[in-house]
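Fig. S4 source data, part A: sequence.
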Amino acid sequence: MGTYNVRASEIVQDWYVVDAEGQILGRLASEIASVLKGKRKATYSTHLDVGDHVVVVNAEKVRVTGRKRDEKIYFRHSLYPGGHKLTRFRDVQADKPEEIIRLAVKGMLPKNKLGRAMIKKLKIYAGPEHPHVAQAPRPLPSTGLRS
């Protein structure tokens, strides 16, 4: 018997909802990245996008430990001389709380075409409401995360 390789036509992608209220950012991001990659599935394959869609609600209520709220810095650069921007965690959380989770998860995904396709399956909302009712999302299976 040979090794089983999943075909692109056999991939089934589910939808999951994660409530970020009171969750610690890094632990939440690693669980989400695992689901987006598809590592929880028996059909996991490193060269195919077999992961599921994830909807995150209450992104504005995510927690960080220690003094990260005041000391964590996000760095961007425009690729022009002197074009660097530094932003504190608390400022990003006040302005764009969705960006905090997106950047944390993006850093845990592959840095190639596959990773860019995986991050597109992540939908993040600051409040408790989301428009993804038609896909019938459900909580993450067998994790320590609250849904």
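Fig. S4 source data, part B ends here. The longest strand covers residues 15-19.
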